[in-house]
Amino acid sequence: MIYAQEKKVSQTLWQLNELMPMSNTEYALWLKLLEDRTGITLPELRKSFLLSKLSIRMQELGITDYKSYFAYVTHGKAGRVEWEILVDRLTIHETRFFRDAKTLSFIKHAYLEKLNFEQDNPSIHIWSVGCATGEEPYSLMMYIDKYMADKNEQCYLAVTASDISHDALAVGKKAVYHQNRFTNVPEEYINHYLENVGKDHYLVNDSLRKRICFNRLNFINLDSSTVGKMDIIICQNVLIYFKRETRIQILNQLVKHLLPGGVLILGAGEITGWQHPEINAVKYNGVLAFQRVQSQLECIQQPGYDA
Ligand SMILES: C[S@@+](CC[C@H](N)C(=O)[O-])C[C@H]1O[C@@H](n2cnc3c(N)ncnc32)[C@H](O)[C@@H]1O
User: Fold this and answer.
1) pTM for this entry
2) Integer Cα distance of 51 and 63 in angstroms
């Protein structure tokens, strides 16, 4: 076993050593292309990441130098199709079910517990921005659905899940995951929301799948997005790939999609010092969240939290 791991590591190092060098001028061109088309910035340290992804794809296509591949990607219809494939390779889709327990606890205290069931059945519109392969939005749905079931209440739940990666979205739409993806998921959720479809794989059940809509959306096109107004927008572990100026542009666009009183939840530390006239920071330990003002602003506070 150890031998196999060592062999894998040494093979990876061997492959990296074999990577064709790229001049700084050429590297700057690739960085600019990536940033212009996706907003993503790659620090110098990630040069080996870019080189290895490009090399693998070039090998698949039988292209032997970066210059020819750059020309291929940036020209004509074939280039546009190739770019879509490359973007899938250059984006990081790391995610997990029930990744951030504090976020779920925040949603419960800050949002679910404030719903007014005396009136009509409430509706909750959620947008998972940068949803990767779907684990984040499905976790939210399971959590909220179970909350409602435990309270013997009902709500209309509709979830939009968007990402730039076609491959990642395809996994989310299929909604079939290997059992080792569920290590964080409490047993009662597995029993209730997942159906064993054989070979250690589970399908998210139909009641959740029919309430989620996966959409391809690039952050740089947020201003022309047709996504509606949301009660909760979650954008976690995404902004880290963008420079501060781009992060702020993205956040300012996301605010436009928040209903009054709606909350925007980011990954801890993903922005500092961001201010917006219609947004208040929310105080909740370990969670970075903002609320769109409403006429009577109610400040969300964690029970027992001292401001
Ligand atoms: C690390 S994953 C985060 C997944 C999930 N939000 C979570 O926290 O588990 C980051 C996602 O952001 C997406 N992404 C990166 N650049 C994007 C862009 N310009 N537009 C839309 N999505 C983008 C990637 O494709 C990737 O799936």
Assistant:
1) 0.90
2) 14
